Amino acid sequence: MSRAPLPYNPKILELFRNPKNLGKMEDATVTAVAGNPSCGDMIIFYLKISDEDVIEKASFESYGCAANIATSSVVTEMIKGMKLEDAWKISWKSVVEAVGGLPSVKFHCGILAVGALRRAIRAYCKNKGVSPTWLSKEQTFEEKQALEEEELAEILSRRMKVEEEK
């Protein structure tokens, strides 16, 4: 059985081939890991945040498909120079729109990118010991969809053990 290639638009393909802000940031203020066990995509977001809570720099590392890399790239571009409160408000739908649309089976990539961003912002606030009014007390849908690396590794490990036992 062969699979037909997904109908990615030229912007997604360009960002996949030439992602913006790809790579580890050594002087990051905060990092966040997000992963999706259903597709295997993983993202690490790095943010450099000023004392005024402005995102000065953003970068990412990715293990994933073209849509995962493109949406992560777009998010890092969108948030540079933003206050954390404004970055928190970015929706996965606005990310999908910013990459020119995604096949519906790839919407989760936009959700994952926003989940990684929100996890980073939440971690930053926790590390600072602050709880701004705009930061939801409960995890958002996007955060819940972006499982922690350890949780993803545990799920993958269980799957591998089941396969080995067969």
What does this structure look like?
With 166 residues, the chain is α+β, with helices and mostly antiparallel strands. It has a single domain, classed as Sufe protein. Chain: A. The chain is 47% helix and 14% strand. The protein has helices at residues 10-17, 66-79, 84-88, 92-98, 107-128, 141-145, 149-165; strands spanning 30-35, 42-49, 55-63. A three-stranded antiparallel β-sheet has the order 1-2-3, with helices on one face. The longest helix has 22 residues, at 107-128. It is globular and about 55 Å long. It starts with 9 loop residues before the first helix and ends with a helix. The model has no long low-confidence stretch (mean pLDDT 90).
**DSSP strand (E) fraction?**
5-15%
Question: Any idea what the CATH architecture is?
Answer: Alpha-Beta Complex
**Unreliably modeled segments:** none
Let me know the number of strands: 3
Averaging pLDDT over every residue, what do you get?
A: 90
CATH fold group: Sufe protein. Chain: A
Largest sheet: 3 strands, antiparallel
Class based on secondary structure composition and strand pairing: alpha+beta
Q: Helical percent range?
A: 40-55%
Q: How large is the radius of gyration?
A: 16 Å
Number of helices: 7
Query: Alpha-carbon distance between the termini?
Result: 23 Å
- Tell the overall outline: globular
Q: Helix-strand pattern, N to C?
A: HEEEHHHHHH
CATH domain class name? Alpha Beta
